[in-house]
Design a protein that fits this description.
The complex is a heterodimer of chains A (114) and B (115).
Chain A lengths: L3 E4 L2 E4 L5 E7 L5 E7 L5 E9 L2 E4 L6 E3 L9 E3 L8 E8 L9 E2 L3 E5 L1
Parallel strand pairs in A: 2-11
Antiparallel strand pairs in A: 1-3, 3-8, 4-5, 4-9, 5-6, 7-8, 9-10, 9-11
Chain B lengths: L2 E3 L4 E5 L4 E3 L2 E3 L5 E8 L6 E7 L7 E2 L2 E6 L4 E6 L8 E9 L7 E2 L3 E6 L1
Parallel strand pairs in B: 2-12
Antiparallel strand pairs in B: 1-4, 3-9, 5-6, 5-10, 7-8, 8-9, 10-11, 10-12
Classes of the chains: A mainly beta (114), B mainly beta (115).
Chain lengths: 114, 115
């Protein structure tokens, strides 16, 4: 079945360590997105990519990095520079044929800093 | 920048009853899209309903319908005949016409369904 796969579901990190969250989609979508979700807040955009080898900063990009070497993959690295990385991270994608801009989401990754 | 406001942190409804979730947004644009997403305990976001701003007719999807008031910048969601499976966090989201998929989300409303 087509969809978006995020891994790992749960991740624990010590302070000062970088971690990478995986996002893979087999929907043949051009655009991919990373959102962060904190309790009591909506989703906030970290980075997005409209096409392979191109990506743009979202509203809260500081302390994060991404790459888009393949259409199917958009990994997110949470660096040690991110001051408060404990959160739920959601990856999404959008097809070029989606006129309204509907996003399809993965199941998310929960990152906890110990 | 556009902002999306959901003023109800939590709403409770009995099975088979109707509940309405409010959403207001701030924009100076005329071309945009609005969405309601559902996030059940599994945490995966699921699209419930969408509305194009240029359409005057309110969108409906089975038991879900919206009341889109463009002049008032209001976009409420009505859930009719509520079911236990409707219990979830509901997010209102806005996308401007030229933002290529970037959504602005509200803080969410938790819907509790009681038997």
């Amino acid at each position: 079945d087509g969809g978006i796969t995020q891994s790992p579901k749960y991740l624990f990190r010590k302070e000062g360590q970088n971690v990478t969250l995986s996002c893979e989609q087999n929907l043949n979508h051009d655009a991919m997105y990373w959102y962060r979700q904190d309790p009591g807040q909506g989703l906030r955009l970290i980075y997005y990519s409209q096409i392979v080898n191109d990506f743009q900063k979202g509203d809260i990009a500081e302390g994060y990095s991404v790459s888009r070497e393949k259409k199917e993959s958009f990994p997110l690295t949470v660096t040690s520079a991110q001051k408060n990385p404990t959160a739920f991270y959601l990856c999404a994608s959008r097809g070029s044929g989606s006129f309204s801009g509907e996003l399809f989401f993965g199941e998310g990754s929960r990152l906890t800093v110990l | 920048a556009q902002t999306v406001t959901q003023s109800q942190p939590e709403m409770s409804v009995q099975e088979a009853e109707t509940v309405t979730l409010s959403c207001t947004y701030d924009t100076s644009e005329s071309d945009y899209y609005l969405f309601w997403y559902k996030q059940p305990p599994s945490r995966q976001m699921i699209l419930v309903i969408r509305q194009e701003a240029y359409k005057q007719q309110n969108a409906t999807e089975n038991r879900f319908s919206v009341n889109f008031q463009k002049a008032a910048k209001s976009f409420s969601l009505k859930i009719s005949d509520s079911q236990l499976g409707d219990a979830a966090m509901y997010f209102c989201a806005y996308r401007s016409g030229d933002s290529w998929g970037k959504l602005q989300f509200g803080a969410g409303t938790q819907v509790v369904v009681t038997p």
